[in-house]
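Following up on my earlier message about AHG. Here are the inputs again, as you asked, copied directly from the submission form:
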Amino acid sequence: MRDGRITITQFIIEEQRRIEGATGDFTSLLNDVVTACKEISNLVNHGALIDVLGQAGTENVQGEDQKKLDVISNDVFLKTNEWSGHLAAMASEEMEEIYPIPRQYPRGKYLLTFDPLDGSSNIDVNVSVGTIFSILRCKGACQDPGAGDFLQAGTEQICAGYALYGPSTMMVLTTGNGVNGFTLDQNIGEFILTHPNLTIPAETREFAINTSNMRFWEPPVKRYVDECLSGTTGDRDKDFNMRWVASMVAEVHRILTRGGIFLYPMDEKMKASGGTGKLRLMYEANPMSFIVEQAGGMSSTGRERIMELQPSELHQRVPVILGSKQEVERVVEYHKEHDTNAAA
Ligand code: AHG
Ligand code: MN
Ligand code: MN
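Thanks, got it. Here's what our run produced:
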C-alpha cells in the first residue's frame, strides 16, 4: 500500500510464495475466510440496529441454546466458503453433521472447521465475541468426504486463526510460521498487519478460570489456583490478578498480548455426567493450541498435549489449559504429581 502498510492479502500471498509448489488455492481459501469474518464483524457491530441480538429459539448438537447470531454467522461461513472449489467439506460447532460442498460447486482438497461465534453468551451484553477456524488437508476421498476425514490430530492443521470482534476487529493467524495479528481498517475494509510476530511472555501474573466451578475442580487445579490466590503470602513469589471474559477468543488474545494462563479444566461435575471437557477439540481447542504454541506458549489438557490428541468424534470436548509456558508446565506437573500419588 502507498503508506507501506501490509494488507492481510499481501501478507498471505507473500507467505505462500515461499512455499514451493503452492498453487494459490490456499491463499484464495484464506481470503474467503477473511471475507466471512469481515461480514460477521459488520453484523456484530450493527447489533440491535439490524435485529440480530437475542435467542434463535433453537438448540445446537451440544444441547446449548443458539443465539440468532450463532445461526447467522454459521450461515455466513458456509455461504462465503462453499463456492470457491478449494474445500471438500466444512464442519461447525453449530451443525451436527459435516457440510460436504454442495454438488453444484467443485470440491477441493481442504477441510474447514469453525466456531462461527465464540463467547456468544456475551453478544446481548455488548462484550467481545469472536470466530475461530482451522484448516486441514483432506487426505481421504475428497470427492466424497466424511466426518472421519476431519478426525486428524491438531498437529496436522495447516492454518488456524481467530477474528476478535472487540473495540477494534482483529484477525490473528498462524500457518505454522509464527503468529501475526491484523486490525480491520473499517474505512477501506482491509485487515492491516499491526501485530507482527506475536509471542506470549513466558512469565505471567494473570490467570483466567471460571471460579463458579471451584467446588468441582480436581486437586491439581485447586492447588494451582489456591497458590495464585495466596500469591506472595503463599508459595509463589508474586501476586496474581484474575480475569474471566467467558469468550475464549478474548482470553487467548489477552494472553497473546500480555501473557497469562487460561483454564477450562476437567472437573467432577463433568465426570459425573460422562463429559470429557467443556471446550470443543476441533473448533476451539486445536486451533487455539496451534496459535498459542506458535507464539511460544503451551497447551495441554493437564495430562496430554492437546495438539497430539487423536480425535475420536467431530464434536469431542476436552479440558484446556493454555498460555504462558512456565505456568502451564506448573499445572501439568501438579497433575503428574497428583496422578502418581493416586496410583501409589
Ligand atoms: P461458545 O460461545 O462458542 O459456546 O463458547 C463459549 C466457551 C468459551 O469461549 C468460553 O471460554 C467458555 O465457553 C465460557 O464458559 P462459561 O460460560 O462456563 O464461563
Ligand atoms: Mn466457542
Ligand atoms: Mn460458538
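One observation from looking it over: The longest strand covers residues 110-118. Hope that helps, and feel free to reply on this thread.
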